[in-house]
């Protein structure tokens, strides 16, 4: 059991982080603000729904998660996983993915899903604090100043309930 398992909303990085916080999750959200890392579906925990989003789809992701929770009629555990940026020898911390994960946390919190791990709370606070500057920060990260990360995509439905995107 990881320290985050007692929380409804958790946050970690990459495939290793997905394994650490996603084993008992109902939905795993692959967060990629730039859309430059493919969702590694076969490497992610198998028993949960898998969706992906960037900043543009944060609210849609939260709405989808709430709909899943309502369809299942029970508390839905959420694993937010920052894609990060691949390097030849490791995964780069990606501020853009932290901010996009924070946007999902903010949208979940506004819908009553707010039992966040400290890691998720930090992402949430980063987004809320930097909200006025998020677009400018993303433009600074992306070559050419253009955000390419998209909206909500559903890659795998939950075994107990299907929710439209």
Measured as a percent range, the helix fraction is 25-40%
* CATH architecture classification name: Alpha-Beta Complex
Radius of gyration: 14 Å
Strand content: 15-25%
- Supply the helix-strand structural class: alpha/beta
Biggest sheet, in brief? 5 strands, mixed
**Average pLDDT for all residues:** 90
- As laid out across the biggest beta sheet, the strand order is 1-4-2-3-7
Distance between the termini: 31 Å
Task: State the shape.
Answer: globular
CATH top level label: Alpha Beta
Overall domain count: 1
Number of DSSP strand runs: 7
Count of discrete alpha- or pi-helical segments spanning 4 or more residues: 5
Summarize the structure.
36% of the residues lie in helices and 17% in strands.
Written description of the protein model:
The protein is of the alpha/beta class and 165 residues long. Helices cover 36% and strands 17% of the residues. The strands form two sheets. Strands 1-4-2-3-7 form a five-stranded mixed beta sheet, sandwiched between helices. Strands 5-6 form a two-stranded antiparallel ribbon. Strand 5 (85-86) and strand 6 (91-92) form a beta hairpin. The chain is built from five helices and seven strands; from the N terminus they run βαββαβββαααβ. The chain has a single domain (3-146), classed as Alpha-Beta Complex (Protein-Tyrosine Phosphatase, Chain A).
């Amino acid at each position: 059991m990881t320290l985050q398992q007692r929380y409804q909303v958790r946050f970690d990085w990459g495939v290793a982080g997905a394994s650490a916080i996603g084993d008992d999750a109902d939905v795993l959200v692959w967060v990629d603000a730039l859309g430059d890392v493919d969702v590694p579906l076969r490497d992610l925990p198998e028993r949960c729904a898998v969706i992906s989003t960037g900043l543009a789809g944060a609210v849609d992701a939260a709405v989808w998660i709430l709909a899943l929770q309502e369809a299942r009629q029970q508390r839905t555990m959420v694993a937010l996983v920052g894609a990060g940026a691949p390097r030849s020898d490791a995964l780069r911390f990606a501020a853009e993915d932290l901010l996009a994960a924070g946007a999902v946390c903010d949208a979940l919190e506004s819908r009553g899903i707010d039992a966040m791990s400290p890691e998720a709370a930090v992402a949430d606070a980063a987004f809320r604090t930097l909200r006025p500057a998020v677009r400018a920060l993303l433009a600074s990260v992306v070559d050419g100043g253009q955000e390419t990360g998209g909206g909500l995509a559903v890659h795998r439905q939950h075994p107990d309930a299907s929710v439209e995107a």
